Amino acid sequence: MKKLSLTLFTSFILSITYAQPVELYDLVKALVTDSTGYENIGTWAVGKPKQYPVVWKADKIEMSPDTSVNFYRMGNANISIKRKTFMLANKPVSWNVMLKGPRMGYASFSILSSPSKELAVKPTIDSLFGKQPFKAKLLKRCDGKDAVGFYFYEVKLPKKDITFIKISWLSINGNVAIRIDGYDSYSRYSAKLVCN
User: Fold this and answer.
1) Which backbone phi and psi does 98 adopt, to 5 degrees?
2) Within 13 A of 150's CA, how many CA atoms are on the CB side?
3) Quick one: which of 151, 62, 162 has its CA closest to 103?
4) Whose CB among 33, 101, 178, 182 lies 3.0–4.6 Å from 106's, allowing a Cys bridge?
5) How many angstroms separate the Cα of 112 from the Cα of each of 3, 37, 66, 166?
């Protein structure tokens, strides 16, 4: 019995570690609410572990002491960009996913990579989404420095509500970390758009 339990546990850990990568575009599209003609909020998917390609830290939402976050849910995802995965010190780049919003559902999300020399500075929405179907309008840019900056877009994905996406980067010693923040029309006002 112990051997069977150990085998199942090892299989579970390996399935998480070697999960099939999800395209960044597909993850973002899954997290943006569907177009219904009404303003929507995202579902936390508690009790539905396969709704999003994310391995959640807990099967619940948690209350944040930060009132700008309210409630949140955190997890990790194995992400590829245009079918390419990235490495750091011979290990796959780790991507953290965080949903944020009121108890009834999330209104914004963040996707953050660990740093890698393989990630490029100044990533645009076109460089991340490639030839996938979307329309984007650049609303603000802060790209005067290679070390740090962002692009802020209004984005329309097929059959999805309009979303606002901030793509930011931080580069130290040639290692680049990327952060993608998605906002609905209400939460977009919480986006930090000051150019440093």
Assistant:
1) -135, 125
2) 18
3) 62
4) 101
5) 37, 30, 19, 12
Q: What are phi and psi of 154, to 5 degrees?
A: -100, 125
- CA nearest 80: which of 44, 116, 108, 106? 116
Among residues 146, 157, 116, the alpha carbon closest in space to that of 27 is found at 157
Residues 6+ apart with CB under 8 A from 161: 32, 33, 34, 35, 39, 40, 184, 185
pLDDT at position 186 is: 84
* pLDDT tens profile 165-193: 999 999 999 999 999 999 998 888 888 99
Report CA-CA distances (Å) from 171 to 100, 129, 143: 26, 21, 12
Task: Give me the phi and psi of 148, to 5 degrees please.
Answer: -155, 145
pTM for this prediction: 0.87
Hey, what are 62's tokens?
């948690």
pLDDT tens across 88-126, in order? 888 889 999 999 999 999 999 999 999 999 999 999 999
Tokens of 75: 């997890």
* Structure-token pair, residue 25: 């575009």
Distance of alpha carbon 32 from alpha carbon 55, whole angstroms: 18
In the prediction, which pLDDT does 91 show? 86
